[in-house]
Amino acid sequence: MPLLEIHELTQYFGGLCAVSDFSVALESGELVGLIGPNGAGKTTVFNLVSGFYKPTQGKIIFKGSSIAGLKPHEITGRGIARTFQNIRLWNHMTVLENICVSQHYNMGYSLMDALLRTKRYLKQEKRIVTEAMNILEALDLARYADEVPPNLPYGLQRKVEIARALSIKPSLLLLDEPAAGLNSADVKDLISLIQRIHREFDITIWMIEHQMTVVMTLCSRLKVIDFGATIADGTPDEIQNNPDVIKAYLGDDAI
Ligand SMILES: Nc1ncnc2c1ncn2[C@@H]1O[C@H](COP(=O)(O)OP(=O)(O)OP(=O)(O)O)[C@@H](O)[C@H]1O
């Protein structure tokens, strides 16, 4: 059984069809890419899978159960984590607090426990901090635990966002343009980081990315969409030489 199955997903925004009849199946352990020109509908697909939008039509099945229309926190609870095209960290909180706050969907204590600072509350809070520090250590970020994100270079902020997504121990990680805004040295580091996460965290990764070196190096297969519709599906080599893909990116003159 695939980890994630999407059948004929369609999303309208008023009269605009942002995603049309999109289907895909991701097997556990895969690292695959979703590419396409600007405005193709890629982020909309991720927003539908992560519960930010309710699909106009279609099925989204994760671990055998339908998740279409669930709230984002419910989908996180099922084991899907994501990052965003524009980094969304809490800039007034430290790196450690940013990771801890994402754990609170799974805190295991009540409001009353928190108000009375019961034993259960203190024990769970300690667990959350320990687990957050473990993830920061695993990604070589522990030394930045007490910094606020704006004090860190952009490449490290991206890494913190990935650490935050990993901290919920997802089975599926959605990365939305992780290389956006990074310089070439940071892109190289990001490629190694994603390879390491994929190897060490027993996780399935689905990524949107415009930088071809990143997807060509990392992904075993790619799906290409344009104006919401799928135009190609295949290995990076097949995709690079597909005339429909070349046309979508470069226009008719390219072929
Ligand atoms: N909430 C929304 N309301 C109305 N239109 C939207 C909304 N979200 C996206 N769209 C439109 O849907 C289309 C697909 O947008 P989407 O952001 O999914 O594309 P994308 O492939 O991720 O683009 P990019 O690579 O530029 O990020 C675009 O025309 C966009 O303007």
UniProtKB/TrEMBL annotation:
Name of the molecule in the record: ABC transporter ATP-binding protein
Matching InterPro entries: AAA+_ATPase, ABC_AA/LPS_Transport, ABC_transporter-like_ATP-bd, BCA_ABC_TP_C, P-loop_NTPase
Domain of life: Bacteria
Phosphoprotein listed as a keyword: no
GO biological process: D-alanine transmembrane transport; L-alanine transport; L-isoleucine import across plasma membrane; L-valine import across plasma membrane
Protein's organism: Desulfoplanes formicivorans
CDD domains membership: ABC_Mj1267_LivG_branched (cd03219)
Keywords: ATP-binding, Nucleotide-binding, Transport
Any one GO MF annotation of this record: L-phenylalanine transmembrane transporter activity
Residue intervals of the ABC transporter domain: 4-252
One cellular component (GO) term of this entry: plasma membrane
SMART domains named in the record: AAA
PANTHER family cross-referenced by the UniProt entry: AMINO ACID ABC TRANSPORTER ATP-BINDING PROTEIN, CONSERVED COMPONENT OF ABC TRANSPORTER FOR NATURAL AMINO ACIDS-RELATED
